[in-house]
Amino acid sequence: MSKRKKRNSFHFLKRKFSKIMQKKLVLLFSLVVLAFAILIGRIIQINAMNGEKYTKVVLDQQQYDSRVIPFRRGDIVDRNGTKLATSERVYNVILDVKAMLEKDEYQEPTIKVLKDCFGIAEEDVEELVESSPESRYNILLKGVDYNTAKEFEAIDEDEEKHPNVKGIWLEEDYVRKYPYNSLASDVIGFSNADDVGTIGLEASYNAILNGVDGREYGYLEEGALLERTIKEAENGNTIVSTIDAELQKIVEKHILEFNEAYKDNAEKGNGSLNTAVIIADPQSGEILAQASYPNFDLNKPRDISAYYTEKELKKMKEEEKVEILNNLWKDFCVSDSYEPGSTAKPFTVAAGLETGKIRGNEVYTCGGSLVVAEDTEPINCHYTAGHGTQTIAQSIANSCNVAMMEMIKVIGAEDFYRYQSIFGFGAQTGIDLPGEAEGILQDPELVGPVDLATNSFGQNFNVTMEQMVAGMSALINGGNYYEPHVVKQIQDENGNVIETKESVLKKRVISEQTSTMLKQYMKTVMEGTGTGASAAVEGYDIGGKTGTAEKYPRNSGKHLLSFIGYAPQDDPEVLIYVVIDEPNTESQEDSSLVLNLARSIMEEAFPYMNISTIDGQPVVAPEQPDEPEEDQQEVEPQVENETETESQEEVSGEPSYEGEAVGDGSYEGESYDDGVYGDGTYEDGSGDMESGY
């Protein structure tokens, strides 16, 4: 039996299409291709001609959801971590009008919650509903505190009692706060609503304090869920300052007490035009406390009601208020320059010792005045009866102008002005605060004998407080000039240290031997009948120098009082500089005003700072002489046959200066550039010029 051949199931595929069928298939394929070509062409045409129109139609059917996530501006803290400036979280009230109007029963309860919880007026909401019924994002209120926000959240989550409250939500934001109000106002500064620092550290470290906003965004189609895209905000960094908040409080307390005591005294107004204090570490350039008065509340920087009555404020023009605010916000310690008076005398002596033109064993005779050039009037010493014979130590202790003028004759203009520049006068110190002034120096090529003579005791040139602190620190620390600074560290928001601001040693200005001699000279100021004796603090070995600068115009009765001091004597741990500009008293040259203020600060500050005492034993401060202040104190003249060296050793306990000058003021690896001097546009100063003492 033969086998049946198996039939292939796909045999039909091997059949050939007829010619008619082939033509039909080709035609069908061509029509499909043509249809696709027409469709693609039409899509291209629509997109090219009306793409934007149709895109808007699509987007109108979607809800775009996007919001800014604000960064948190970094804190400013003191050296111990106490917050001086911080950003507190607050909330903005947002209303989605379209969501509120979805159902009629939503509107009334939602408006009621806005009024009851946030104090938003009904008419304001109704006006918004009428003008923008389709709006989704409307800021109704800013700066809502945490407690109010929690109160609303409880309402929002209570579906049983408040099922129809719709369209309200809270947006996080931050507001700048200053926990201690006016404390260190000039140093800290403040920022505006846009997180832009205006003055102080807020301005100079603005970029470091600021962060970068984040964003939450996406599209929500009607009835659909959206997976949101979030870019988190980058918060700002924290500034750790060198300021000690407790020390700052001590300083500002005593400044305020002084100004309250002399308010409306000789005339209506504050106790002084300006009162300012700097306390610094002379071994590093760190500013530990810095304050000036009048000051202002950092939380209300434009409020001047503390200094003017409501009646006075109503009479003021806007331009007057702006000028008052600009003066109030200006940091006297950094931005104002003035004639230093006799606090500049140690610098004159230092220049003489460093150049070798003064040896330390010189003796001068003060007859109460000195003629420094032909055809000029005598320039008076503050003690017009004359101090008699004066060693260098005595001339510093008694603040003798005549002795200083005799010294500068020997030093000469070229070396004197070279060392003024070396000591940092006439140039910015580089402190990390905005608006620093340079001061004004005489041009050594143009200066006359009268201006040169008066420069020796701190008249006819201008300095800033920062310059005096930096320069005096170098005189007492062995000759090292440090750049003053108010920031120690920069940290991230979690407290991790990003950068440490090391002390910057800019140059060496004098030798250790000169520094030792200067300290011994300034110690005599605080002893016996020295001009600063009444500022001595029991238990502390203090050196210092007083100053009373007569302001322009001369003989107007306007004076600037100052005291600069340090402790302990051998290895200074602290430097204090106190300035009272135009005290509100009948006699502005009364140096006891600044000495009493300085003493009151030191008496409280030194124990707090644990400043080293004299062998652990208290020292009784000498009683103030019965004679009027330093302008009438006189040292008994030396016996005529006493040798110069013996006289010097008796007063200062220091042998004559025998070393060579080594302090050239050079920078690291570079020679010192004398720089540019001021134009010296002062009055000629002839006549009865008297310096501060």
TrEMBL record:
Penicillin-binding protein dimerisation domain spans which residues?
70-219
UniProt key word Aminoacyl-tRNA synthetase: no
- TM spans (from-to): none
Q: Kindly state which keywords UniProt assigns to this record, in alphabetical order.
A: Membrane
What SUPFAM superfamilies does this protein map onto? Answer: beta-lactamase/transpeptidase-like, Penicillin binding protein dimerisation domain
Q: Which GO terms are recorded in the biological process aspect for this UniProt protein?
A: cell wall organization
InterPro entries cross-referenced by the UniProt entry: Beta-lactam/transpept, Beta-lactam/transpept-like, PBP_dimer, PBP_dimer_sf, PCN-bd_Tpept
Q: Which domain of life is it from?
A: Bacteria
Which residues lie in Acidic residues bias regions? 624-652
Q: Which GO terms describe its cellular component?
A: plasma membrane
- Please tell me where this protein is predominantly located: membrane
Q: Which Pfam families match?
A: PBP_dimer, Transpeptidase
Question: Where does the record place it?
Answer: Membrane
Q: Which GO terms describe its molecular function?
A: penicillin binding
Any idea where the Penicillin-binding protein transpeptidase domain is?
276-603
* Positions of the UniProt region annotated as Disordered: 618-693
Similarity comment text for this entry = Belongs to the transpeptidase family.
Question: What is the designated name of this protein?
Answer: Stage V sporulation protein D
UniProt source species: Faecalimonas umbilicata
